[in-house]
Automatic annotation (TrEMBL):
Signal peptide: none annotated. InterPro entries: Ald_DH/histidinol_DH, Ald_DH_C, Ald_DH_CS_CYS, Ald_DH_CS_GLU, Ald_DH_N, Aldehyde_DH_dom, Aldehyde_DH_Superfamily. Residues 29-495 form the Aldehyde dehydrogenase domain. Transmembrane segments: none annotated. This is Succinate semialdehyde dehydrogenase NADP+ linked. Gene3D superfamilies: Aldehyde Dehydrogenase, Chain A, domain 1, Aldehyde Dehydrogenase, Chain A, domain 2. It comes from Sporothrix eucalyptigena. SUPFAM superfamilies: ALDH-like (SSF53720). It comes from the Eukaryota. Keywords: Oxidoreductase. The active site is at E268. Belongs to the aldehyde dehydrogenase family.
Amino acid sequence: MASSASSLLRSKLRDPSLLREQAYIGGQWTDRGKSATFDVKNPYNNETIGTCPDLDSADAAHAVEVAHEAFQSFRHTPAKQRSQILEKWYSLMREHEQDLATILTYENGRPLDAAKAEIQYAASFFSWFQGEALRAYSGETIESSVPGGRVLTFKQPVGVVGVLTPWNFPSAMITRKAGAALAAGCSVVVKPAAETPYSALALAELGERAGIPAGVFNVVTTNEYLASVGKTLCEHDLVKKVSFTGSTRVGKLLMEQSSSTLKKLSMELGGNAPFIIYDDADVSLALQGLMAAKFRASGQTCVCANRVYVQDGIYDDFVKQFADIVQRDMIAGDPTTAGTTLGPLISETAATRVASMVEDAKAGGAEVVLGGESARSTSDPATFYPATVLKGMQPGMRASREELFGPVVAFYRFKSDDELLKMANDAEVGLAGYVYTEKLGRAWRVAEALETGMVGVNTGMVSDPVAPFGGIKHSGFGREGGRVGLDEFQVMKTITLGGLGLPTNSI
């Protein structure tokens, strides 16, 4: 049932049926008889977009049971058929790209052009995994150590997968996980973030049109964050795998909740990415790469450049050039308006946190080159924080230890490799890092020395469907995407054959 609040957004869509306000379980749109709902807000103006049913642990358990039943047949679906479903799902996403971007913009606050780019990125995982479904080769044949025997290995789908996704990439974090899971033959129960359920539900609508069998892809909407639905997905015996993207703190809790059932886990957690620019770097390329790596989603991504290290010889000039570009190109405003390049943060709390980190840096001696509190306008929504450039940063500041998760660029000065690597690796987390240099040996040496799961060399983009994505240390474990992305949703079985009557040599 559509709410009156959703009529405005629905009127913006070419296909209004993509805006769904019910959960999707077992191929049915349902509120499971619940009268309780929660509001979904537009972070730009805090207006209610619509509502969704606030489901609970019993509803999550029902979704898991439905998914388990669907898995019994879907696991035997031929790879070609699974590939065709994903190919159709991809085509439908591209066909409805504008509507999906509009939904994302209203619930997430990302400017329309950037939202469209995410939809393209999200759809690309379906394109990649429709091919990987056909390339999911079973395993290998090994000559046994026992004469005349053979050992065979092959891979099977792990089972029901619980998917818990964040608000900052409400489409791509689902497609990266669900695309691989379906390619492997698994069924899925998704718990999207309460801030951004409509992107997930739109994917469910398109998935149904693509021919996904009932019960294979399910979306449970809820306003809870850790308890109830999320806890059920972690503790339910029928869920064999949990894939989570979010904070390190929450990831650790989910691991605890999953321990009693010994689930297979993928944890893509927080980051604190070092972005390194040597004095021999192509400066124009580094400026372009830093803009891309910093301001995506208003700085609210786990691979955003967090600590920018610039070698002493070019430090002052680079900071000035970068600040000039930011002032020219970062245009704050209504994310639904053409020309806006900097949208709001997800909440007023998020904006307040970013402001407090900037104040901490200033108290420690950092200089505000651009932006900061003084650049805020009284007409700005409480969720906005201006694009800000800081220089003179020091390792002891909060912004050095925590993710900024906002449109703030923090510059550090360095002279030698030893000094640099000591600062860059001084972090509990290790997701992404970036290195700009024209010296191949230096690039290779520093990329290997950085304690991160991914490194971009002379590029600000490390996210690609063809590349494994994931971190080390407290940034989690497991890899999603790339050729190995399917492995996360499979288990290996070994069969040992004896008595084959094969010829043997007794020498």
